[in-house]
Design goal:
The protein is mostly helical and about 90 residues long. The chain has a single domain, classed as Orthogonal Bundle (434 Repressor (Amino-terminal Domain)), CATH 1.10.260.40. The protein contains 5 helices and 2 strands, in the order ααααββα. Strands 1-2 form a two-stranded antiparallel ribbon. Strand 1 and strand 2 form a beta hairpin. It is globular.
């Protein structure tokens, strides 16, 4: 399945962001108010959720310090934008 460049994040970025945070799909569902099945389907490439739903997912990650790196010459990615100390406080 190919993804349009207008999609705010890719399934791989969602999985990577959850990995950085130590979140399960259930945790992401709780934080984003998006159904766990929707998240699972998106992350395995079965379907692309509505744009608004993807923005809810992105917002939930950004609120806890995740920054998405758009696809470019070095490829897409995910990173923390806050220093380590701030991340530790957010994860509690």
């Amino acid at each position: 399945m190919s993804y349009d460049t207008k999609i705010p994040i890719s399934p791989q970025q969602s999985r990577a962001a959850r990995g950085l945070l130590g979140w399960s799909q259930s945790d992401l569902s709780d934080h984003s108010h998006v159904g766990q099945k929707t998240i699972a389907d998106f992350e395995r490439g079965a379907r692309i959720p509505q744009f608004r739903t993807l923005n809810d997912i992105v917002r939930s990650f950004e609120q806890v310090g995740i920054e998405f790196i758009p696809d470019g010459s070095s490829g897409e990615g995910v990173r923390f934008k806050l220093p380590q100390l701030d991340r530790q406080l957010l994860s509690k």
